[in-house]
Amino acid sequence: MIHGIKGVKDLLPEEAARWQVIEAAARRLSTLYDYREIRVPIFEVTELFARSIGASTDIVEKEMYTFQDRDGSSLTLRPEATAGVVRAYIEHNLGASPTAQKFFYLGPMFRHERPQAGRLRQFHQYGVEAFGSVSPWADVEVISLLWRFLSELHLPGLTLEINSLGNAADRPVYKEALLDFLKGREKTLCQNCQRRMGTNPLRVLDCKVPTCRTATEEAPKLTDHLSPQSRQHFQEVIGGLDALGIPYLLNPRLVRGLDYYTLTTFEVTSQHLGAQNAVGAGGRYDGLVETLGGPKTPAIGFAVGMERIALMLPASTLPSPGKMVFVAAFGQKGVPAGMQILHELRSLGVQSDSDYRALTLKAHLRQADRLGAAFVLIVGDDEAEKGQVILRDMASKEQHELPLSAAAHSVATRLLPA
RNA sequence: GUGGGUGUAGCUCAAGGGUAGAGCGCCUGACUGUGGCUCAGGAGGUUGCGGGUUCGAAACCCGUCACUCACCCCA
């Protein structure tokens, strides 16, 4: 038997219904905030991701699905969507538009990691990107949209954490200061952190090992090393969140894994997930458009993991299924008559079904019950000959006869809102 | 890439060397043209796969594959 690829899952109809709720909320709220949908390819030239995400990040070093095209060029299944959106923004010269360019996207991403709870090799993200504004209010808007989206889905136990990484000039200065501090206590750090000192010292702050946490208790804080401009930007973002009543936690240890982030970074976590507890995250990336060959353009965005949201989505947010009509058609003359009614019902916009395998009335009614039909139209040979059908209300068991020609219309007016 | 856990009926799980079981689901009948509920009956298994130990293996050993959780890292 051929089975699916490790870490790549099928969404069966029952679960797809949950996803539709999530996707509908994403589209509705994005539109409400005046973000427009953008659809970019799920694969791009490898270099795009290497340049944007950062050549020395885990994603680029060991997690990308990269393959050779027939002409020998290297292509990669997108591990995230920001790079592709920025590429499209530059390629179509969207920055030339007089209005701010704000986009949202929805779709699959690919990373070759060992699967675990809330982490798959093909996973799905909803995200937004806002180009063109340096204003802290752009940061606030993006965070506000993220928070509203998660709130409207009634996800439990959420925490919003926020930090500033400073601008491109601030970071090297801080990195230096942090390294000086860490060198003094290298021995007390875990193996991982000793390695991180060489690769990405900022991540040492993010370590969960208790001894590392205490060792870095006194570490210089990123927020203390911000330039006045960076500091002011951060203060204004915080002030904006306060003004809108969005609850947050300042976390000076919050460091993000992608190289392109600058200034504001944020992350929403939940206590109701496993070890992979980040529901959504994002930040500002003022240098990325320029890095990829576009005009100097400030930008900010977020991405949320749909699988992680689906894991937490309470049953109460799921809509109840619509009422459907089942046509129980059997016998030489009953079947054609029933199929005619089924066709009419569907033409009138009534959700309806039949079962071509069922040969007896009993079998039909059992199927109707399983499908949760509100009404059943019974058409056997007797009814077909009389030109009548029986309408059965499944809940009350009440039945009455209708003329065959008027049956579909009669049921439609009964079910559809006037 | 590393480590732990688990693989038995369609599903959830028992049986821990001696005849493979339960609940749910499915099928049939009671009800020959009326669903659910009840009752009676029935079908369904190379115990993931390959080897080994043993008179005898679902169980013990080795290998392998799959799933799963965690590390790294991330949404």
Shape: elongated
Number of helices: 15
Hey, roughly how much beta strand do the residues contain? 15-25%
Count the E strands: 16
Q: Could you please say which CATH topology of the largest domain applies here?
A: BirA Bifunctional Protein, domain 2
Number of domains: 2
**Low-confidence blocks of residues:** none
Q: Tell me the name of the CATH class of the largest domain.
A: Alpha Beta
Radius of gyration: 28 Å
Largest beta sheet, briefly? 8 strands, mixed
CATH H level, superfamily name of the largest domain: Bira Bifunctional Protein, Domain 2
Task: Tell me roughly what share of residues is in helical segments.
Answer: 25-40%
Distance between the termini: 51 Å
Strand order of the biggest β-sheet: 1-5-6-11-10-9-7-8
Report on this structure:
With 418 residues, the chain is α+β, with helices and mostly antiparallel strands. It folds into 2 domains: 13-169 and 227-317, 2-Layer Sandwich (BirA Bifunctional Protein, domain 2); 325-413, 3-Layer(aba) Sandwich (Rossmann fold). It is built from 15 helices and 16 strands. It has an 8-stranded mixed sheet. A 5-stranded mixed sheet has the order 13-12-14-15-16, sandwiched between helices. Strands 2-4-3 form a 3-stranded antiparallel sheet. A hairpin with a 5-residue loop joins β3 (65-68) and β4 (74-77). α1 runs antiparallel to α5 (136-152) and α5 runs parallel beside α9. The longest helix is centred in the N-terminal third of the chain and has 20 residues, at 13-32. It is elongated, with a radius of gyration of 28 Å. The protein starts with 12 loop residues before the first helix and ends with a helix. The chain binds one RNA strand of 75 nucleotides through residues 3, 6, 57-59, 62-63, 79-80, 109, 111, 113-119, 123-127, 192, 203, 256-258, 267, 274-276, 278-281, 302-309, 328, 330-331, 360-370, 373, 376, 378, 380, 382, 390, 392, 394, 397, 399.
